[in-house]
Design goal:
With 262 residues, the protein is an alpha+beta fold. It has five helices and 15 strands. The strands form two sheets. Strands 8-9-10-11-12-13-14-15 form an eight-stranded mixed sheet, covered by helices on one side. β6 (85-93) and β7 form a beta hairpin. The protein is globular and about 65 Å long.
């Protein structure tokens, strides 16, 4: 959602027409944060799985976003969804992103058998078991979670998928490639970490020797996205202020970047 400085600029992103629909909401929104540095408004939102246009009773079975802008201070200015479920909502549609809507009013919970059927299917567990291990789909975060044996120990793995989908065959294939050559893969990442001069500055500040520090790092946790690119997360520990060291690796096993996170 694009944040703009003035109320008029923000409002211009959305059609003036107020519509009403039934939305199958994934979760509540929370209080959110400021809609821009100098804004008097807060912006929050959530994702929906499908919705029904109350004007023509048509079902739109695809995900999108619901956004709410409000003034803090008086609790009645902030209305949230009561967890996952079906809600009747008045909204205005984004002019350039028709799956994004600005909430005008949450009118309350609702029922519809079509959305209930989608919700029932959504709540069914999706589990994949193969030669690598067992992985379960976390639909809230759109990723399969599991573990694999890596250099003699189990490490956590997350395989990201597109929202409202379950297919991760390409991500599993990438994981197979990593596991088949894990010794070389691990050595390449740790060498890349050892040669990063930004990390040397942290070690110098802590009075920690450079030589061999990369071999002492705990990890990795592997995250493979829907494009087959991998992030390897290592626990930096005390020398790095308990930040995580995250190395980005492309589909050709080339390390492309490193960040301290957390």
């Amino acid at each position: 959602m694009k944040m703009m400085g003035s109320s008029d600029q923000f409002e211009e992103q959305f059609e003036s027409e107020i519509q009403e629909g039934l939305f199958l909401v994934k979760h509540n929104m929370g209080k959110g944060g400021k809609a821009g540095r100098d804004s008097k408004f807060y912006l929050t939102g959530t994702r929906y799985l499908a919705w029904i246009d109350c004007g023509n009773d048509e079902l739109y079975n695809s995900p999108g976003g619901l956004h709410l802008r409000y003034k803090p201070g008086i609790f009645s200015n902030f209305h949230d969804f009561d967890g996952p479920g079906i809600y009747r909502v008045q909204f205005r549609t984004n002019k350039t992103r028709p799956t994004d809507h600005l909430i005008v009013k949450i009118k309350g919970k609702a029922n519809d058998p079509r959305l209930s059927s989608i919700l029932e299917e959504y709540r069914k567990p999706v589990i994949v078991t193969n030669e690598l291990g067992t992985f379960e789909l976390d639909r809230d975060y759109n990723e399969y979670k599991g573990t694999v044996v890596y250099l003699g120990k189990e490490i956590p793995v997350s395989l990201e998928v597109k929202e409202a989908t379950t297919d991760a065959e390409m991500q599993f294939e990438r994981l197979r490639q990593i596991c088949a050559d894990q010794g070389s893969f691990d050595a390449k990442i740790r060498k890349y970490i050892a040669e990063d001069e930004t990390l040397w500055d942290w070690l110098d500040d802590e009075g920690t020797e450079h030589d061999g520090f990369e071999q002492k790092l705990e990890g990795p946790t592997l995250v493979i996205d829907e494009n087959g690119e991998t992030a390897a997360w290592f626990d930096g520990g005390e020398p790095f202020g308990y930040h995580s060291i995250v190395v980005s690796i492309d589909k050709d096993d080339t390390c492309t970047g490193i960040d301290l996170v957390g």
